[in-house]
TrEMBL record:
PANTHER family, per the entry: CELL DIVISION CONTROL PROTEIN 6-RELATED (PTHR10763), ORIGIN RECOGNITION COMPLEX SUBUNIT 1 (PTHR10763:SF23)
Subunit structure: ORC is composed of six subunits.
Annotated function: Component of the origin recognition complex (ORC) that binds origins of replication. DNA-binding is ATP-dependent, however specific DNA sequences that define origins of replication have not been identified so far. ORC is required to assemble the pre-replication complex necessary to initiate DNA replication.
InterPro entries: AAA_lid_10, Cdc6_C, ORC1/CDC6, P-loop_NTPase, WH-like_DNA-bd_sf, WH_DNA-bd_sf
Taxonomic lineage of the native organism: Eukaryota, Metazoa, Chordata, Craniata, Vertebrata
Domain of life: Eukaryota
Gene designation per UniProt: Orc1
Occurrences of domain Cdc6 C-terminal (ranges): 155-235
Protein name: Origin recognition complex subunit 1
Organism (species): Grus americana
Subcellular location: Nucleus
Protein family per UniProt: Belongs to the ORC1 family.
Length: 238
């Protein structure tokens, strides 16, 4: 799980991938991550340059699914096309390779259900599109899109703080500093601390956030109650 080795200076990753490049080295490093574009997302150039094939990913689970549903002969033809099609879509929308598996499975289920009503057919782009619409149209995503401007900025500030700290939990005060920085970049007036606490409370009431129940005020800890990719997808056009 390569993403779990991430540190701010990325020394661990660099040393890990630098070992195989040493003279007379017989070491081969195979790294696994759920994020399809991990090198582009979090790796410094000095680390990414050590990777031999950073853009390739291979899913045994998906290929096994094709073997069961279509047989080995069709697998050879369909697997490459599906990886290219769905992989590119998921990379643009999310980045999590597990979403690629979910979309492929759901598209196949939609196709099979439609085939029960009429003549059998193969999985088509329409089935993939329907599966994607189902996955990225959850009530949580709609709630984010309908949130106020500062509520959306607060969610962006949480993501920024998570990336900065390398952990998926932060205090309201840490998020507030990121929120102020984002407002400054956008040329907007920053909210007061009382307004930030109200924003945090509303997002918690919507179950978009998990907020620590205490009287610590700015030192309360918050976590996202949904996947980070969903938040980024919902805010992509904002």
């Amino acid at each position: 799980q390569l993403d779990l080795l991430w540190t701010r200076k990325q020394n661990v990753m660099y040393n890990l991938f630098d070992w195989p490049t040493q003279k007379h080295s017989k070491l081969i490093i195979l790294a696994i991550a759920n994020t399809m574009d991990l090198p582009e997302r979090i790796m410094m150039n000095r680390v990414a340059s050590r990777l031999v094939c950073p853009s390739n990913f291979f899913s045994v689970a998906l290929l096994s699914s094709f073997v069961v549903r279509f047989g080995v002969f069709c697998l050879l033809i369909l697997a490459k096309l599906w990886f290219q099609l769905v992989g590119n879509i998921v990379a643009a929308l999310s980045g999590d390779a597990r979403r690629c598996l979910d979309i492929c499975r759901r598209a196949t289920e939609i196709c099979e259900f439609a085939s029960q009503k009429r003549t059998p057919e193969i999985v088509r782009m329409a089935h993939v599109t329907e599966a994607i619409d189902e996955m990225f149209s959850s009530p949580y995503i709609n709630a984010i899109r309908n949130a106020s401007l500062h509520e959306q900025i607060f969610l962006k500030a949480i993501l920024a703080e998570f990336r900065r700290a390398g952990v998926e939990e932060a205090t309201v005060q840490q998020v507030y500093h990121q929120h102020v920085a984002l407002c400054r970049i956008e040329g907007m007036q920053s909210p007061t601390i009382s307004e930030i606490m109200a924003i945090c409370s509303r997002l918690g009431a919507c179950r978009l956030l998990l907020v620590e129940s205490s009287n610590k005020y700015l030192h309360m800890r918050v976590r996202l109650n949904i996947n980070q990719d969903d938040v980024m997808y919902a805010l992509k056009d904002e």
